[in-house]
Amino acid sequence: MRRRSSGHWDESDVRIRANKRGSRPRTKDRPAHEDAVIGRVVTVDRGRYTVDLGSEGPGTEVTAVRAKDLRRVPVVVGDLVGLVGDTSGAEGSLARLVRIEDRATVLRRSADDTDPVERVVVANAGQLIIVVAAANPTPRTGFIDRSIVAAYDAGLEPVLCVTKTDLGDAAPLRDYYAETSLRILSSSPERPEEAAAPAGRHESLPLDPTTVETMRSLLDGHVSVFLGHSGVGKSTLVNALAGTSRSTGGVNEVTGRGRHTSSSALAISPSWGSVGTWVVDTPGVRSFGLAHVPKESIVEAFEDLAPGYADCPKGCTHAADAAGCGIQRLVDSGHAGPYGAQRLESLRRLLGVAAEDGLDQMKELGTTT
Ligand SMILES: Nc1nc2c(ncn2[C@@H]2O[C@H](COP(=O)(O)OP(=O)(O)OP(=O)(O)O)[C@@H](O)[C@H]2O)c(=O)[nH]1
Ligand SMILES: [Zn+2]
Protein backbone atom coordinates (compact mmCIF):
# COMPACT_ATOMS: atom_id res chain seq x y z
CA MET A 1 0.00 0.00 0.00
CA ARG A 2 1.49 3.30 -0.99
CA ARG A 3 0.47 6.50 0.71
CA ARG A 4 0.41 9.87 -0.79
CA SER A 5 3.21 12.13 0.26
CA SER A 6 2.02 14.96 2.43
CA GLY A 7 3.99 17.15 0.09
CA HIS A 8 5.86 19.23 2.61
CA TRP A 9 8.73 21.11 1.09
CA ASP A 10 11.09 23.26 2.96
CA GLU A 11 12.65 26.42 1.75
CA SER A 12 15.66 24.72 0.23
CA ASP A 13 13.43 22.53 -1.91
CA VAL A 14 11.60 25.57 -3.14
CA ARG A 15 14.91 27.06 -4.08
CA ILE A 16 15.85 23.87 -5.87
CA ARG A 17 12.67 24.01 -7.87
CA ALA A 18 13.13 27.63 -8.63
CA ASN A 19 16.55 26.80 -9.96
CA LYS A 20 15.39 24.07 -12.24
CA ARG A 21 15.06 25.51 -15.66
CA GLY A 22 15.35 22.59 -18.03
CA SER A 23 11.88 23.12 -19.40
CA ARG A 24 11.97 26.91 -19.42
CA PRO A 25 12.63 29.06 -22.42
CA ARG A 26 16.18 30.31 -22.75
CA THR A 27 16.58 33.86 -21.55
CA LYS A 28 19.45 36.19 -22.29
CA ASP A 29 21.08 36.03 -18.88
CA ARG A 30 20.02 32.50 -17.99
CA PRO A 31 21.24 29.79 -20.33
CA ALA A 32 18.90 26.76 -20.38
CA HIS A 33 21.80 24.32 -20.45
CA GLU A 34 20.04 22.26 -23.06
CA ASP A 35 23.37 20.61 -23.68
CA ALA A 36 23.56 19.33 -20.11
CA VAL A 37 23.88 15.58 -19.69
CA ILE A 38 21.68 14.05 -17.02
CA GLY A 39 22.96 11.69 -14.37
CA ARG A 40 22.29 10.53 -10.84
CA VAL A 41 24.25 11.69 -7.82
CA VAL A 42 25.77 8.57 -6.24
CA THR A 43 27.95 10.13 -3.55
CA VAL A 44 28.41 13.54 -1.98
CA ASP A 45 31.69 14.50 -0.39
CA ARG A 46 32.42 18.05 0.77
CA GLY A 47 30.97 19.87 -2.21
CA ARG A 48 32.07 17.26 -4.73
CA TYR A 49 29.48 15.09 -6.36
CA THR A 50 29.99 11.78 -8.07
CA VAL A 51 27.41 11.51 -10.81
CA ASP A 52 26.64 8.32 -12.69
CA LEU A 53 25.72 9.03 -16.31
CA GLY A 54 24.52 5.52 -17.16
CA SER A 55 20.96 5.48 -18.43
CA GLU A 56 20.85 1.70 -18.56
CA GLY A 57 22.85 0.27 -15.71
CA PRO A 58 26.14 1.59 -14.34
CA GLY A 59 27.73 4.19 -16.56
CA THR A 60 30.59 6.66 -16.56
CA GLU A 61 31.17 8.26 -13.18
CA VAL A 62 31.89 11.95 -13.33
CA THR A 63 33.08 14.23 -10.55
CA ALA A 64 31.30 17.57 -10.49
CA VAL A 65 31.02 20.76 -8.48
CA ARG A 66 27.98 23.00 -8.35
CA ALA A 67 27.85 25.92 -10.74
CA LYS A 68 28.09 29.34 -9.09
CA ASP A 69 24.35 30.03 -8.93
CA LEU A 70 23.65 26.64 -7.32
CA ARG A 71 26.30 26.92 -4.66
CA ARG A 72 23.81 27.36 -1.84
CA VAL A 73 21.38 24.74 -3.11
CA PRO A 74 21.58 21.35 -1.40
CA VAL A 75 22.21 18.39 -3.67
CA VAL A 76 21.81 14.92 -2.20
CA VAL A 77 22.41 11.31 -3.18
CA GLY A 78 19.69 10.16 -5.54
CA ASP A 79 19.26 13.58 -7.14
CA LEU A 80 19.03 13.69 -10.92
CA VAL A 81 21.27 16.50 -12.11
CA GLY A 82 22.41 18.14 -15.33
CA LEU A 83 26.15 18.47 -15.99
CA VAL A 84 28.11 20.58 -18.46
CA GLY A 85 31.81 20.98 -19.13
CA ASP A 86 34.16 18.03 -18.95
CA THR A 87 31.86 15.05 -18.50
CA SER A 88 34.43 12.53 -19.73
CA GLY A 89 34.97 11.13 -16.25
CA ALA A 90 38.69 11.07 -16.98
CA GLU A 91 41.02 11.14 -13.99
CA GLY A 92 41.21 14.66 -12.58
CA SER A 93 38.37 15.98 -14.73
CA LEU A 94 35.70 18.17 -13.19
CA ALA A 95 32.23 18.87 -14.59
CA ARG A 96 29.85 21.64 -13.60
CA LEU A 97 26.51 20.78 -12.04
CA VAL A 98 24.06 23.27 -13.53
CA ARG A 99 20.63 21.81 -12.94
CA ILE A 100 18.71 19.74 -10.42
CA GLU A 101 15.63 17.92 -11.64
CA ASP A 102 12.41 17.98 -9.61
CA ARG A 103 12.50 15.30 -6.95
CA ALA A 104 9.87 12.55 -7.06
CA THR A 105 10.35 11.94 -3.33
CA VAL A 106 12.43 13.40 -0.52
CA LEU A 107 13.17 11.29 2.54
CA ARG A 108 14.13 13.52 5.44
CA ARG A 109 14.88 13.31 9.13
CA SER A 110 14.10 16.21 11.42
CA ALA A 111 16.66 17.44 13.90
CA ASP A 112 16.33 15.79 17.30
CA ASP A 113 18.47 15.23 20.36
CA THR A 114 20.65 12.72 18.51
CA ASP A 115 21.33 15.05 15.59
CA PRO A 116 20.94 18.84 15.65
CA VAL A 117 20.43 19.27 11.90
CA GLU A 118 17.54 18.37 9.63
CA ARG A 119 18.83 16.08 6.93
CA VAL A 120 17.58 14.99 3.57
CA VAL A 121 18.59 11.33 3.54
CA VAL A 122 18.01 10.66 -0.13
CA ALA A 123 16.07 11.99 -3.10
CA ASN A 124 13.91 10.07 -5.57
CA ALA A 125 13.78 6.80 -3.62
CA GLY A 126 10.71 4.55 -3.93
CA GLN A 127 11.37 2.05 -1.15
CA LEU A 128 12.75 2.35 2.35
CA ILE A 129 14.41 -0.85 3.50
CA ILE A 130 14.46 -0.59 7.28
CA VAL A 131 17.28 -2.84 8.43
CA VAL A 132 17.28 -4.21 11.96
CA ALA A 133 19.25 -7.09 13.46
CA ALA A 134 17.37 -9.92 15.15
CA ALA A 135 20.04 -9.52 17.86
CA ASN A 136 23.29 -7.58 18.44
CA PRO A 137 22.09 -4.85 18.45
CA THR A 138 18.60 -5.56 19.81
CA PRO A 139 15.86 -4.36 17.45
CA ARG A 140 13.78 -1.39 18.60
CA THR A 141 10.19 -1.21 17.43
CA GLY A 142 10.15 2.51 18.23
CA PHE A 143 12.80 3.10 15.60
CA ILE A 144 11.01 0.89 13.09
CA ASP A 145 7.71 2.69 13.72
CA ARG A 146 9.38 6.06 13.23
CA SER A 147 10.95 4.91 9.99
CA ILE A 148 7.60 3.61 8.72
CA VAL A 149 5.99 6.97 9.48
CA ALA A 150 8.77 8.84 7.66
CA ALA A 151 8.54 6.48 4.68
CA TYR A 152 4.77 6.79 4.23
CA ASP A 153 4.92 10.53 4.74
CA ALA A 154 7.54 10.85 2.00
CA GLY A 155 5.69 8.50 -0.36
CA LEU A 156 8.09 5.58 0.00
CA GLU A 157 7.06 1.96 0.52
CA PRO A 158 8.60 0.66 3.76
CA VAL A 159 10.01 -2.87 3.96
CA LEU A 160 11.47 -4.37 7.11
CA CYS A 161 14.59 -6.46 6.68
CA VAL A 162 15.75 -8.49 9.67
CA THR A 163 19.43 -9.44 9.60
CA LYS A 164 21.54 -11.68 11.84
CA THR A 165 18.85 -14.34 12.06
CA ASP A 166 21.66 -16.72 13.01
CA LEU A 167 21.93 -14.80 16.29
CA GLY A 168 18.25 -14.22 17.03
CA ASP A 169 14.66 -14.81 15.95
CA ALA A 170 12.67 -12.60 13.56
CA ALA A 171 9.34 -14.07 14.78
CA PRO A 172 8.60 -11.50 17.51
CA LEU A 173 8.85 -8.71 14.95
CA ARG A 174 6.59 -10.57 12.56
CA ASP A 175 4.04 -10.94 15.37
CA TYR A 176 4.26 -7.28 16.33
CA TYR A 177 3.51 -6.14 12.78
CA ALA A 178 1.06 -8.95 11.93
CA GLU A 179 -1.94 -6.59 11.76
CA THR A 180 -0.18 -4.24 9.34
CA SER A 181 0.67 -4.66 5.67
CA LEU A 182 4.40 -4.16 6.34
CA ARG A 183 6.51 -6.50 4.24
CA ILE A 184 9.05 -8.32 6.36
CA LEU A 185 12.04 -10.17 5.00
CA SER A 186 14.80 -11.82 6.91
CA SER A 187 18.29 -12.30 5.62
CA SER A 188 20.32 -15.18 6.84
CA PRO A 189 23.99 -15.72 6.21
CA GLU A 190 24.87 -18.89 4.37
CA ARG A 191 27.34 -20.10 6.95
CA PRO A 192 26.30 -19.12 10.48
CA GLU A 193 29.60 -20.34 11.96
CA GLU A 194 31.40 -17.91 9.64
CA ALA A 195 29.05 -15.13 10.64
CA ALA A 196 30.05 -15.51 14.25
CA ALA A 197 33.68 -14.80 13.31
CA PRO A 198 35.41 -11.87 15.01
CA ALA A 199 33.83 -8.54 14.19
CA GLY A 200 35.64 -5.89 12.23
CA ARG A 201 36.60 -7.84 9.19
CA HIS A 202 36.20 -6.18 5.84
CA GLU A 203 34.59 -8.83 3.76
CA SER A 204 30.94 -9.57 3.10
CA LEU A 205 29.08 -12.39 4.68
CA PRO A 206 27.65 -14.63 2.02
CA LEU A 207 23.87 -14.59 2.10
CA ASP A 208 21.95 -17.74 1.40
CA PRO A 209 20.76 -17.91 -2.22
CA THR A 210 17.05 -17.69 -1.35
CA THR A 211 17.59 -14.45 0.54
CA VAL A 212 19.53 -13.00 -2.37
CA GLU A 213 16.85 -14.08 -4.84
CA THR A 214 14.00 -12.63 -2.76
CA MET A 215 15.80 -9.39 -2.07
CA ARG A 216 16.85 -8.86 -5.66
CA SER A 217 13.34 -9.28 -6.99
CA LEU A 218 12.14 -6.81 -4.36
CA LEU A 219 14.76 -4.26 -5.38
CA ASP A 220 14.59 -4.68 -9.13
CA GLY A 221 13.34 -1.59 -10.93
CA HIS A 222 13.25 0.58 -7.78
CA VAL A 223 15.42 3.08 -5.99
CA SER A 224 15.72 1.50 -2.54
CA VAL A 225 17.36 3.14 0.42
CA PHE A 226 18.74 0.98 3.23
CA LEU A 227 18.48 2.58 6.64
CA GLY A 228 19.17 1.36 10.15
CA HIS A 229 21.21 1.69 13.29
CA SER A 230 24.94 1.35 13.01
CA GLY A 231 26.16 -2.23 13.02
CA VAL A 232 22.91 -3.92 11.99
CA GLY A 233 24.48 -5.18 8.78
CA LYS A 234 23.35 -2.69 6.12
CA SER A 235 26.64 -2.61 4.27
CA THR A 236 26.99 -6.37 4.52
CA LEU A 237 23.57 -6.73 2.97
CA VAL A 238 24.14 -4.13 0.27
CA ASN A 239 27.50 -5.69 -0.60
CA ALA A 240 25.96 -9.13 -0.91
CA LEU A 241 23.09 -7.83 -3.00
CA ALA A 242 24.87 -5.35 -5.20
CA GLY A 243 28.15 -7.21 -5.54
CA THR A 244 30.14 -4.32 -4.07
CA SER A 245 32.76 -4.37 -1.37
CA ARG A 246 32.09 -1.47 0.95
CA SER A 247 33.89 -2.03 4.22
CA THR A 248 31.86 -3.35 7.11
CA GLY A 249 32.54 -3.10 10.80
CA GLY A 250 31.68 -4.67 14.10
CA VAL A 251 29.61 -3.23 16.90
CA ASN A 252 31.83 -1.28 19.25
CA GLU A 253 31.51 -2.85 22.70
CA VAL A 254 31.85 0.50 24.45
CA THR A 255 29.65 2.81 22.42
CA GLY A 256 27.33 0.17 20.95
CA ARG A 257 27.91 1.87 17.61
CA GLY A 258 29.47 0.35 14.55
CA ARG A 259 33.14 0.67 13.81
CA HIS A 260 34.47 1.37 10.33
CA THR A 261 31.10 2.93 9.84
CA SER A 262 29.99 4.14 6.46
CA SER A 263 30.22 7.92 6.68
CA SER A 264 28.05 8.97 3.75
CA ALA A 265 25.28 7.60 1.60
CA LEU A 266 26.23 5.70 -1.52
CA ALA A 267 23.99 4.80 -4.46
CA ILE A 268 24.86 1.67 -6.41
CA SER A 269 23.41 0.52 -9.69
CA PRO A 270 23.70 -3.27 -9.49
CA SER A 271 24.66 -5.05 -12.68
CA TRP A 272 21.80 -7.56 -12.35
CA GLY A 273 19.10 -4.88 -12.06
CA SER A 274 16.82 -3.65 -14.81
CA VAL A 275 16.85 0.04 -15.77
CA GLY A 276 16.18 2.26 -12.78
CA THR A 277 17.43 -0.16 -10.13
CA TRP A 278 19.42 1.64 -7.46
CA VAL A 279 20.47 0.47 -4.03
CA VAL A 280 21.39 3.22 -1.58
CA ASP A 281 23.47 2.38 1.50
CA THR A 282 23.33 5.03 4.23
CA PRO A 283 25.41 5.72 7.34
CA GLY A 284 24.02 4.25 10.54
CA VAL A 285 21.49 6.49 12.26
CA ARG A 286 20.67 6.79 15.97
CA SER A 287 17.09 7.93 15.59
CA PHE A 288 14.62 9.31 13.09
CA GLY A 289 13.31 12.80 13.89
CA LEU A 290 9.71 13.25 12.82
CA ALA A 291 9.08 16.91 13.64
CA HIS A 292 8.36 17.54 9.94
CA VAL A 293 5.53 15.00 9.82
CA PRO A 294 1.94 16.17 10.51
CA LYS A 295 0.17 14.38 13.41
CA GLU A 296 -2.48 12.88 11.13
CA SER A 297 0.21 11.29 8.98
CA ILE A 298 1.71 9.71 12.09
CA VAL A 299 -1.66 8.21 13.04
CA GLU A 300 -2.33 7.03 9.48
CA ALA A 301 1.00 5.21 9.37
CA PHE A 302 -0.26 2.98 12.20
CA GLU A 303 -2.62 1.33 9.79
CA ASP A 304 -3.74 -1.31 12.31
CA LEU A 305 -4.92 1.49 14.64
CA ALA A 306 -6.05 4.03 12.06
CA PRO A 307 -9.59 2.54 11.72
CA GLY A 308 -10.27 3.73 15.28
CA TYR A 309 -9.25 7.26 14.34
CA ALA A 310 -12.53 7.84 12.51
CA ASP A 311 -14.37 7.41 15.82
CA CYS A 312 -12.21 9.86 17.76
CA PRO A 313 -13.85 13.08 18.90
CA LYS A 314 -12.66 16.18 17.07
CA GLY A 315 -9.27 17.34 18.31
CA CYS A 316 -8.64 14.05 20.14
CA THR A 317 -5.07 13.81 21.43
CA HIS A 318 -5.26 9.98 21.61
CA ALA A 319 -3.54 10.20 24.99
CA ALA A 320 -4.41 7.68 27.71
CA ASP A 321 -6.74 10.18 29.38
CA ALA A 322 -8.38 11.44 26.16
CA ALA A 323 -12.14 11.04 26.61
CA GLY A 324 -13.79 8.78 24.04
CA CYS A 325 -10.64 8.10 21.97
CA GLY A 326 -11.68 5.79 19.14
CA ILE A 327 -8.22 4.24 18.87
CA GLN A 328 -8.30 3.32 22.55
CA ARG A 329 -11.73 1.74 22.04
CA LEU A 330 -10.49 -0.20 19.01
CA VAL A 331 -7.60 -1.57 21.05
CA ASP A 332 -9.87 -2.41 24.02
CA SER A 333 -12.24 -4.30 21.71
CA GLY A 334 -9.36 -6.55 20.64
CA HIS A 335 -9.77 -5.62 16.96
CA ALA A 336 -6.23 -4.25 16.76
CA GLY A 337 -4.75 -7.67 17.55
CA PRO A 338 -2.80 -8.97 20.55
CA TYR A 339 -0.20 -6.20 20.26
CA GLY A 340 -2.77 -3.41 20.01
CA ALA A 341 -1.91 -1.91 23.40
CA GLN A 342 1.81 -1.84 22.61
CA ARG A 343 1.17 -0.36 19.19
CA LEU A 344 -0.95 2.38 20.75
CA GLU A 345 1.78 3.06 23.31
CA SER A 346 4.29 3.44 20.46
CA LEU A 347 1.92 5.76 18.59
CA ARG A 348 1.51 7.88 21.72
CA ARG A 349 5.26 8.19 22.07
CA LEU A 350 5.55 9.40 18.49
CA LEU A 351 2.73 11.86 19.03
CA GLY A 352 4.42 13.05 22.21
CA VAL A 353 1.45 12.08 24.38
CA ALA A 354 2.86 9.00 26.10
CA ALA A 355 2.14 8.90 29.82
CA GLU A 356 5.77 9.20 30.91
CA ASP A 357 6.35 12.17 28.67
CA GLY A 358 4.48 14.81 30.63
CA LEU A 359 6.15 17.81 29.07
CA ASP A 360 5.36 16.84 25.51
CA GLN A 361 1.84 16.03 26.55
CA MET A 362 1.32 19.58 27.73
CA LYS A 363 2.66 20.94 24.47
CA GLU A 364 0.31 18.65 22.59
CA LEU A 365 -2.68 19.86 24.58
CA GLY A 366 -1.70 23.45 24.07
CA THR A 367 -1.44 24.09 27.81
CA THR A 368 0.04 27.49 28.48
CA THR A 369 0.79 27.23 32.20
N1 LIG B 1 26.29 -13.01 12.84
C1 LIG B 1 26.03 -12.16 11.85
N2 LIG B 1 26.79 -11.07 11.70
C2 LIG B 1 26.50 -10.22 10.70
C3 LIG B 1 25.42 -10.44 9.79
N3 LIG B 1 25.36 -9.41 8.93
C4 LIG B 1 26.37 -8.57 9.27
N4 LIG B 1 27.07 -9.06 10.33
C5 LIG B 1 28.23 -8.44 10.98
O1 LIG B 1 27.81 -7.29 11.69
C6 LIG B 1 28.82 -6.29 11.67
C7 LIG B 1 28.26 -4.94 11.17
O2 LIG B 1 27.90 -5.06 9.79
P1 LIG B 1 27.89 -3.82 8.79
O3 LIG B 1 27.41 -4.35 7.49
O4 LIG B 1 29.15 -3.08 8.82
O5 LIG B 1 26.79 -2.92 9.48
P2 LIG B 1 26.21 -1.49 9.01
O6 LIG B 1 24.78 -1.52 9.38
O7 LIG B 1 26.54 -1.22 7.60
O8 LIG B 1 26.99 -0.49 9.93
P3 LIG B 1 27.27 1.08 9.69
O9 LIG B 1 28.14 1.19 8.48
O10 LIG B 1 27.93 1.49 10.96
O11 LIG B 1 25.95 1.74 9.51
C8 LIG B 1 29.94 -6.85 10.79
O12 LIG B 1 30.92 -7.41 11.63
C9 LIG B 1 29.26 -7.94 10.00
O13 LIG B 1 30.16 -8.96 9.62
C10 LIG B 1 24.63 -11.64 9.98
O14 LIG B 1 23.68 -11.93 9.25
N5 LIG B 1 24.98 -12.44 11.02
ZN1 LIG C 1 -8.20 9.40 19.67
Automatic annotation (TrEMBL):
<keyword id="KW-0342">GTP-binding</keyword>
<keyword id="KW-0547">Nucleotide-binding</keyword>
<feature type="compositionally biased region" description="Basic and acidic residues">
    <location>
        <begin position="190"/>
        <end position="205"/>
    </location>
</feature>
<dbReference type="InterPro" id="IPR027417">
    <property type="entry name" value="P-loop_NTPase"/>
</dbReference>
<feature type="compositionally biased region" description="Basic and acidic residues">
    <location>
        <begin position="7"/>
        <end position="16"/>
    </location>
</feature>
<feature type="region of interest" description="Disordered">
    <location>
        <begin position="1"/>
        <end position="34"/>
    </location>
</feature>
<dbReference type="GO" id="GO:0005525">
    <property type="term" value="F:GTP binding"/>
</dbReference>
<dbReference type="InterPro" id="IPR010914">
    <property type="entry name" value="RsgA_GTPase_dom"/>
</dbReference>
<feature type="region of interest" description="Disordered">
    <location>
        <begin position="187"/>
        <end position="207"/>
    </location>
</feature>
<dbReference type="Pfam" id="PF03193">
    <property type="entry name" value="RsgA_GTPase"/>
</dbReference>
<feature type="domain" description="CP-type G">
    <location>
        <begin position="114"/>
        <end position="288"/>
    </location>
</feature>
<feature type="domain" description="EngC GTPase">
    <location>
        <begin position="123"/>
        <end position="286"/>
    </location>
</feature>
<protein>
    <submittedName>
        <fullName>GTPase RsgA</fullName>
    </submittedName>
</protein>
<dbReference type="GO" id="GO:0003924">
    <property type="term" value="F:GTPase activity"/>
</dbReference>
<dbReference type="InterPro" id="IPR030378">
    <property type="entry name" value="G_CP_dom"/>
</dbReference>
<dbReference type="InterPro" id="IPR004881">
    <property type="entry name" value="Ribosome_biogen_GTPase_RsgA"/>
</dbReference>
